[in-house]
Design a protein that fits this description.
Distance between the termini: 84 Å
Mean pLDDT: 88
Number of helices: 7
Helix content: 40-55%
CATH topology of the largest domain: serine acetyltransferase, domain 1
CATH class of the largest domain: Mainly Alpha
Order of helices and strands: HHHHHHHEEEEEEEEEEEEEEEE
Number of domains: 2
Radius of gyration: 23 Å
Amino acid sequence: MNQSTDEVLKNVEKTICNSTNEYGYIPENAGRPLPNSGKLAQIVQLMKEIVFPGFFNETGVIPVMQQYHISLNLECINTLLKEQIANGLHFFTAQTNGRSENEASTLALAFIERVPEIRRLLHTDVKAMCDNDPAAKSFGEVIICYPSIQAMIHYRVAHELLLLDIPVIPRIITEIAHSATGIDIHPGAQIGEYFSIDHGTGVVIGETAVIGNHVHLYKGVTLGAKNFVFDECGHPVNVPRHPIIEDNVIIYSNATILGRITIGHHSIIGGNIWLTESVPPYSRITQQRIAAKNIKH
């Protein structure tokens, strides 16, 4: 071997040692690929075609052929998802609660059973967006144009997968939407019916947030954590730490709501508000108006 080859091989050994020993992020049983973001995006695309037939494919769907198309798409989802779940269960054994990749088929079918409910919820989200935005000319415009609907399709799919205790895949799916829309919804958040986000850029909804029915957010809203609880080793503990938003609440642009607090039903939170304490139902929280002072020259 020449000197160049010898130097390359030496650094290969150093790199392998650092990856496996120092950091330990490559599991010893990693003999299968990770879940693939491209295939997961394909699963979401198929879900779009099921939930909103004709809007997200090139040819459209004739009404009498809807049953055929939905059946075909569900079969494709089942096949793709089974493979991706198996990869995730094999690779992330520390997060599988003792389950093996052999359960992938059962979990994929369990998700398929939840598709009708996902479809129903997304249709309520479209109606909520139309009801809350005078610029929306039709349901069809909202479905095909609005980034909040794209984000909610990804979230509602990912949330059901998370409820099945499937590792990593739910987070990949919501991060695909985050990258595309600027809306960051953790799959662990609980979001009720008729949910809408106007514009949406910069919205952040944390993992343990709980959102009721008929809630409307504007751009830049953060439902975040105020602080963290740590264990004896100094690692953050996953406990409820994000807000609870009750039914029929409106939160305007760039409001920041932090901690495990409750925003009571039928409340309105004004723009640029910073909240770390609960507010009762029917509250109206706005910025205090400051009278301009006359300046003498």
